[in-house]
Amino acid sequence: MTRRAQNLNSLVRGRIRPSMNKYNLFNLYKKSKPNFRIMTLYQQKWASKQETRAYHGEHIKEHRWQSLFEKKLKGVAQLDASLKGNVPSTPMVLQTFASLEKRLDYSIFRALFSSSVRQAKKFILNGHVKVNGVIIKHPNFNLNPGDIFSVDPERVLEALGSKKPNLKESYKIDKLQIINWQNYVNNVKNDPRKIWEKKLEKQKKLNSLYKNLNVNDNFNSNNLINNDDIERKKNMQDYKLKKLREIQNSIDRKSILNDIIKTNPSNSIDDFKSQFGDKLSTKAFQIYQLIPNSIKNLQTDSDLSKELLKIIPIYKDGKPIGEIYDDTNSKKIRSQLSELHSEYLEKIRQDFQEKPLAQDELIKIWSENLKKHPTLPPFNEVEEKGSYYVKLPWQRGMFGLANPNKSYFTPWKPRQFLPVFSVLPKHLEISFKTCHAVYLRDPVARPGESEVISPFDEDIHERSYMYYIKNGM
Amino acid sequence: MLGRTIIDSSACSAKTAGLQVSQVRYRRTLAYPFYSKAGNIPPARKGRKQTVFKRLMDQFLGPKNYKGEYYLNKYAYVKTNHTTNYINPRNERGNALLESLSEFDVGEEDDSSSFRRNRSENALQPFPLNSKCVTNLQISNETKARIVDDILLNKIPSQQVALKYGLKIQRIEAILKLREIEEEWEQNGLIKGDLKRFSNTLYNMFPLYNPEKHAENLTEIPIPKETLQSRFLTIAESEPFGPVDAAKEFNLEPAAVTLERLSEGGEHSSHHSNAKANKDGSFISTMYKGDKYAFKFTPVKVGNVGYRYGKVFRDNRKDRKIAYDAAGNKYYPIE
């Protein structure tokens, strides 16, 4: 039978447990070494036994543990030790609880497939664990070297993921997020530049604060920053394309010819360079030379447009409307103009691709694309329906309930304080991709190191070992 | 002491009597943090009634944001650059926040920095009290792929691969086994979505193994039971006496032989032959015309199987020995 779980994570008692609980974290953090100097030998042994047993096989009753206890401790000798010289001593006493590490429930906890040994035990009893492809329902199943054990990935994700919020909690958080978002959009519309600068500053600060930490990309203290880079880039591309089309549509042969005449160069190509670039300016100049002087010297715009219509007429049903110049010179102008026209459009497109957007433009695009979120329905309606619609730049679907059928926070994110408790064991080889692990061998002690994972040092383990070998008791 | 005692009156009387050990039958020590000073009681969380311990814990964890995350605690989030994030209470003394909450909090920062030890030295040590416990290093995906290629494509025996990468043979065999499972899962499209996110997160939070820097010791053999005790032998002063003589004296095989034997195991080793040898001596009898079943015969010793007549049969004993059969069912072996 399992030991009763009563007040396991008491802060007053302050024992360290095999668990990833946050209370356990604080108990681990504040732990000090027992002061053996003021204790009798038996007190020392008793205190050590209390401390170590609270971590090693906490859920196993004392009598059962004493039947599992092995007096003989396992260590390895290194044959090249004599070549190295000055080899540290082997901490054999840290193997006191090594016999527990063979157990299936402990191996699952060590392989980081569960958040506590008690949870690992539950996984086994509920049939989520297989050893060599066979479902094993006994937490004290002893593994042999070479055994492959696996846990259902859904259970592992649940164990190491954040807690799934219920509908009410999700709703509360989303409501707050949406209110903040609306305020933010309002502020942006009022003064985009100021908020933009504030945003950049904040992003910089957060980046330095959370350097190399896996903070969810949606994280920030009031969630006002649009981090969805892909979306933003897409928006900018759309805007660029739109603007490009506008410009391209406004250009035809007539407008180019008009531009050429208006430029009125003093017999040199350079004046065309600002508009047409190096390559096309010669072509533009050639066209300019072909144009008869009578047209060049026209003063008013209306006269000029009339003349231009005669060179480049509007076609209807394949036939030009009105009077046209049909001489060879005009034909030459027309053919050269159409060449220039297509090349000029190509040039504009290239320019757009290469030219980055100016900051003003960026801010404009960004502020124009921010849209308010529709307000959430009242909670009693949501409760009846079971879900509600949320689409924020950093979040699709309800908070933590993107897939409400899963038993963990979706999309998955690691539970808090996971790095403190994640210790890779040396006696297991783990594949997190498939939630499988191989039991390599029983953990051993070698010079300067012990493979049994324990928060207590040799002093405590030594006294604990003394307690269990029962010499002189 | 683990903390301060709550029975001050009795402790006082012991002190006045000049005794080190207070003479009380049951002394309950409260687990105060080692860094907290007497009388230092942090304020309670807004609008709540909290015990002193809960307040100290909240002070350590820091504030929560509206999503319920301890967003300022430096241990709350996992790392993404293959480094660990283990606690270091001896230097911080309770101040585990990424940035101080107010300008009044920064007072103790200066005096602690004077004896700040270099965390990078024991970055692999997860528990501050136990310097003998270190986390394992993770083998990178590229190294794993190379090991698999070496063994399966280039057909290099596992002993040579073990030497090349500084990894024990069991670990190399395990990598191969897991690789097979991973490939099968990938083909079936099972590694996706949240599981992929999970495995990437965990891959990024553990330090990576570098064969040149962290090679395992490949000359390890289990310490024989006999050598744990001393044995005395009288020999002449001129008589040479080395490790091989000692092994003979203990009735043990020389360590080099043990090491060689240990490295022979494994499916991909050079010693492995494809002909499957029946170590236990079992065989399947030939079937003749009209036989319905093929019989398998396994030699066993009387006493090792079944109930031996006259043996004490205490099936109501507490904490009996437990064994499991191949199907994972539990049974009580007859002792």
UniProtKB/TrEMBL annotation, chain A:
Q: Which GO terms describe its molecular function?
A: rRNA binding; structural constituent of ribosome
Q: Which InterPro entries match?
A: Ribosomal_uS4, Ribosomal_uS4_CS, S4_RNA-bd, S4_RNA-bd_sf
| Keyword Secreted applies | no
Tell where it localizes. Mitochondrion
Q: Alphabetically, which GO biological process terms does the record hold?
A: ribosomal small subunit biogenesis
Cite the RNA-binding S4 domain residue spans from the record. 102-161
Q: What is its main location?
A: mitochondrion
Sorted alphabetically, the keyword list is:
Mitochondrion, Ribonucleoprotein, Ribosomal protein, RNA-binding, rRNA-binding
Q: Which GO terms describe its cellular component?
A: mitochondrial small ribosomal subunit
Origin superkingdom: Eukaryota
One Pfam match, given by its short name, reads S4
Its biological purpose: Component of the mitochondrial ribosome (mitoribosome), a dedicated translation machinery responsible for the synthesis of mitochondrial genome-encoded proteins, including at least some of the essential transmembrane subunits of the mitochondrial respiratory chain. The mitoribosomes are attached to the mitochondrial inner membrane and translation products are cotranslationally integrated into the membrane.
Concerning PANTHER family, the annotation shows:
30S 40S RIBOSOMAL PROTEIN, SMALL RIBOSOMAL SUBUNIT PROTEIN US4M
The entry assigns this protein to a family as follows: Belongs to the universal ribosomal protein uS4 family.
Q: What is this protein called?
A: Small ribosomal subunit protein uS4m
Q: Which organism is it from?
A: Pichia californica
From TrEMBL, chain B:
InterPro entries of this UniProt entry? Ribosomal_mS45 (IPR021036)
Top-rank taxon, per record: Eukaryota
List GO terms (cellular component aspect).
mitochondrial small ribosomal subunit
Any one GO MF annotation of this record: structural constituent of ribosome
Originating organism: Pichia californica
Q: One Pfam family, short name please? A: Bot1p
Q: What name does UniProt use for this protein?
A: 37S ribosomal protein S35, mitochondrial
Q: What are the GO BP annotations of this UniProt entry?
A: mitochondrial translation
